[in-house]
Amino acid sequence: MSNDALILMVAPNGAYKLQADHAAVPLTASSLATTAKACLDAGAAMLHLHIRDAQGRHSLDVQGYRDALQAVKAAVGDEMVLQITSEAARIYQAPEQIAMVRALRPEAVSIGLREVDQPAIGEAGLADFFGWLARERVMTQVIFYDVVDLQRWQDLRARGVIPDAPWFLLFVLGRYTAGQVSSPRDLVPFLNAHTGPEPWSVCAFGATEHACVTAAASMGGHVRVGFENNLQLKNGDIAPDNIALVKQAAEAAMSLGRPLATAFQIRQRFGAS
Q1: Is 1 inside a domain boundary?
Q2: 2 is a domain residue
């Protein structure tokens, strides 16, 4: 067990959830700001941010991101690290995703490796993009959906395609299982394969989210919770809001003897500008 300060991130909406799924899914800049402040007060020092267009669809619009980030920052100041997503969500292609990140130059971003590791980009393009992220000191979390993704990352790192930098890894549990239901056992293959120095985190699909993140926290990892992946409390009831999921995770960290990381500590650790 690790007493390393636990990075608790909240992913309050994702690319697909609508208010038909849960009335408390935040879809507008103002509702994201309100949710962010409440989740900060509950223990989350990072926000994983998706924005939507006027019809509620996933968007990577640069101005839309600027508006949302401005609203959230007005609510939380510097007390939260604001991570935007570059997720394709079956709408965008790798060149568009990369162009958005370069245009926005966010403090923090999540990048699905398999989404940008495409023929249209090539290894030269990957080297250029990840080199830019490192030089610009954008805090980058690289997403892996299975061990094959992780092994590809390790190969790119070993051959110098991806430069040395304070990368942050995210292991996704349950994405490609029946019914998208995760299990703490899903973490084992990732941990067996992870031989590098990068710190890691997990997110988990379905009602076993809390069990999965508690297991990860007990093994020295960091955690992401929220309506993007799960709507249920650990007892199976529907969570009233994202805040309840954050509180559960914070309580688990406390029971494991892991203090919660602050935004200042996170920025120090990853050298974010």
Answers
A1: no
A2: no
